[in-house]
């Protein structure tokens, strides 16, 4: 353990988690204070949120203590390029579904971007695989499970 | 006698062709995901939840249980041949198993783990069948206060046992409980934490959280550290079969492993890691050839493998009788029950005996299927490891998206999936356990409802929780479980070191 070198300065990730927990606690507590419906007897809908808010606040403060002691485990270096590829694919997915681009195009992009993020260098091939996968899933859902996945211009060609 | 009759009826259900089919699919998928490193039964069941909600409840649950059992069998293959345990339950197996494989005894190692799993699974499932009705009889007498106390026990033990730090476990749990507050309060109609977003009025879907944390989070995590050296598969040399000597050295560890696994799996603080390591260290002490340990002793494979399978059956005892999940997979299976409007517990045994006993009976069938699938087909399972990882994880993300869209196709839901996925990644990175969050989301609203019901009965007097012997005892246990890890730091170190 290399505790002596790290105990000098606060552990940043633990501080960030602590702050986030306090913000979350404040949010839960504030929301409970704004509620208008109360119960006639017993405990109302605000009791549990206050308990949870208190719990979150205590955990947040405990993270500050941890930050000045052992800190959170030191993670290995992350490959941020890989993360960006996958996250980019998922953001496109949300936009594509939200704007009516349809399921198949969204899946094509998610598959290709994830495979790329995981280290494959054949974007076109993976996109083709993703397209076929999306098409098959769409048709199986539509015909076998009678469940229509989000449809765009492409999907309408097949129905 | 009643138990035997119920069980025979259960077999009647489980032997229906459709149920057999579900069982076979379950054990097949379970073995596959058990073999693939990084993909466990919890992730698989989570991925399947959204696509099975239109299917027959009994069939789907039989399939989920098959995945759970299959995952325990399959995990040993990777542990032995790759020295890369597929899930934490097979960490102990890898210690001696990979040494045996390197010494050219991979075949007998796989055989003793498959047969040991079979023996353990069979004994533990018998244990489940006979223990469950007894617990149900006890649980029928439970009042709302007892259920509330029981859930507190679950909260504490789940967050203290998953992962190495109680602080991080509790943080994960409380975020889960807070997420459970979102939506309309069922007793009064008050909207909580919705901030005017209509999609949030129905609350956070358990499946969205589970798929996000387990599947999307895992994909991010694996992608972020893909620089690691590729693992090498040790080819199986020599005979697959165990010699007479192997049998003689295996049977006692199987039974002892079962004796560790089943009761510990059934405890709220159980899980599969503790009994597997207990079994490993016991076999090491009892072994007649102590110098073989560390070089590939068959006892070190037989015991832990039996223990992890027995613990899977043990986990089902509190899940079925009390609705208490004690492992990550059990938590997701509970979500599976809930998506059909079923609440595991004593009532389920009374109202849906066919379903419960059919499920228990199918576990026996799953065990038989698994030992048949595992031994002769071992070559096929090993070939699974050749699937390129990028395609595997791209496929998982496609499946996750598909499931979320099938249940609720709104961009808000997809956004939550993505958000939970990123949270799952960060939690893995900083070693926060994800399972307590899912447990918090599932049990949080139930605990709140039970507490409010209890306080309505007592006209607002909280002492009712301490005046009843059962709830008072349970709250005492919860308190001890919460304080113990802080007092006995040594206990914690033991677990941290084994990982």
Q: Please count the beta strands of chain A (DSSP E, at least 2 residues each).
A: 0
Judging from the principal axes of the Cα atoms, what is the shape of chain B? globular
Unreliable stretches of chain B: 490-499
Biggest interface found:
A-B, 73 and 58 residues
DSSP helical segment count of chain A: 7
Kindly provide the radius of gyration of chain B, computed on alpha-carbon positions and rounded to a whole number of angstroms. 22 Å
Strand order, main sheet of chain B: write it out.
1-2
Number of strands of chain B: 2
Judged by helices, strands and strand pairing, the structural class of chain A is mainly alpha
Biggest sheet of chain B: strands, sense, closure? 2 strands, antiparallel
Distance between the termini of chain B: 44 Å
Low-confidence stretches of chain A: 1-7
Write structural notes for this entry.
The complex is a heterodimer of chains A (159) and B (499). Chain A has 159 residues and is mainly alpha-helical. Chain A is built from seven helices and no strands. Chain A is 69% helix and 0% strand. The longest helix of chain A has 22 residues, at 12-33. Chain B is mainly α. Chain B has one domain (2-498). Chain B contains 22 helices and two strands. In chain B, strands 1-2 form a two-stranded antiparallel sheet. In chain B, helix 4 (57-82) runs antiparallel to helix 13. In chain B, 61% of the residues are buried. Mean pLDDT of chain B is 85; it is low at 490-499. At the A-B interface, helix 2, helix 3, helix 4, helix 5 and helix 6 of A face helix 8, helix 9, helix 17, helix 18 and helix 19 of B.
């Amino acid at each position: 353990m290399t505790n002596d070198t790290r105990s000098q300065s606060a552990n940043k990730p633990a501080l960030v988690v602590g702050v986030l927990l306090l913000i979350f606690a404040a949010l839960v507590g504030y929301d409970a204070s704004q509620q208008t419906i109360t119960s006639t007897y017993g405990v109302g809908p605000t009791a549990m949120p206050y308990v949870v808010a208190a719990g979150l606040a205590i955990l947040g403060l405990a993270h500050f203590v941890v930050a000045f002691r052992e800190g959170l485990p030191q993670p290995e270096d992350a490959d941020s390029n890989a993360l960006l590829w996958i996250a980019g694919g998922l953001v496109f997915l949300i936009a594509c579904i939200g704007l009516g681009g349809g399921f198949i195009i969204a899946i094509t992009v998610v598959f290709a971007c994830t495979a790329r993020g995981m280290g494959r260098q054949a974007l076109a091939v993976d996109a083709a695989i993703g397209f076929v996968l999306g098409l098959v899933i769409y048709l199986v859902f539509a015909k076998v499970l009678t469940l229509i996945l989000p449809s765009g211009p492409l999907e309408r060609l097949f129905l | 006698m009643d138990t035997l009759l119920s069980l025979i009826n259960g077999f009647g259900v489980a032997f229906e062709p459709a149920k057999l089919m579900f069982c076979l699919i379950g054990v097949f998928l379970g073995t596959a995901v058990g073999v693939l490193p990084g993909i466990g039964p919890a992730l698989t069941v989570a991925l399947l939840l959204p696509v099975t909600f239109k299917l027959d409840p009994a069939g789907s649950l039989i399939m989920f249980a098959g995945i759970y059992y299959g995952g325990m069998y399959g995990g040993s293959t990777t542990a032995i041949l790759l020295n890369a345990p597929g899930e934490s339950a097979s960490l102990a197996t890898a210690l001696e198993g990979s040494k045996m494989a390197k010494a050219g005894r991979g075949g007998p190692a796989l055989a003793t783990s498959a047969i040991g799993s079979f023996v353990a699974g069979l004994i533990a499932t018998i244990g489940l069948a006979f223990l469950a009705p007894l617990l149900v009889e006890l649980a029928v007498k439970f009042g709302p206060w007892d259920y509330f106390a029981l859930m507190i026990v679950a909260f504490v033990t789940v967050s203290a046992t998953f992962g190495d730090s109680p602080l991080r476990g509790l943080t994960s749990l409380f975020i889960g409980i807070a997420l459970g507050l979102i939506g309309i309060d069922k007793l009064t109609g008050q909207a909580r934490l919705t901030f005017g977003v209509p999609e949030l009025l129905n609350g956070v879907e358990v499946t969205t959280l589970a798929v996000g944390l387990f599947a999307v989070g895992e994909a991010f995590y694996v992608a972020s550290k893909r620089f690691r050296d590729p693992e090498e598969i040790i080819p199986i040399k020599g005979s697959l079969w165990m010699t007479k000597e192997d049998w003689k050295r295996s049977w006692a560890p199987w039974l002892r492993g079962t004796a560790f696994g089943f009761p510990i799996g059934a405890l709220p603080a159980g899980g599969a890691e503790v009994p597997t390591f207990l079994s490993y260290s016991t076999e090491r002490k009892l072994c007649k050839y102590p110098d073989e340990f560390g070089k590939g002793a068959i006892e070190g494979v037989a015991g832990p493998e039996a223990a992890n399978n027995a613990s899977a059956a043990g986990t089902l005892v509190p899940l079925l009788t009390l609705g208490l999940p004690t492992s990550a997979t059990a938590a997701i299976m509970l979500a599976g029950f809930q998506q059909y409007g079923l609440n595991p517990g004593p009532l389920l045994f009374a109202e849906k005996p066919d379903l419960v006993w059919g499920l228990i009976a199918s576990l026996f069938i799953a065990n038989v299927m698994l030992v048949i699938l595992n031994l002769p087909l071992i070559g096929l399972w090993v070939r699974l490891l050749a699937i390129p990882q990028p395609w595997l994880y791209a496929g998982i993300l496609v499946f996750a998206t598909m499931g979320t869209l099938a249940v609720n196709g709104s961009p808000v839901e997809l956004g939550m999936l993505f958000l939970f996925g990123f949270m799952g990644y960060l939690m893995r990175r900083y070693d926060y356990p994800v399972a307590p969050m899912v447990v918090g989301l599932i049990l949080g609203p139930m605990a709140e409802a039970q507490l409010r019901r209890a306080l309505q009965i007592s006209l607002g007097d909280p002492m009712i929780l301490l005046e009843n012997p059962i709830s008072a005892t349970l709250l005492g246990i919860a308190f001890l479980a919460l304080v113990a890890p802080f007092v006995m730091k040594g206990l914690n170190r033991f677990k941290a070191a084994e990982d």
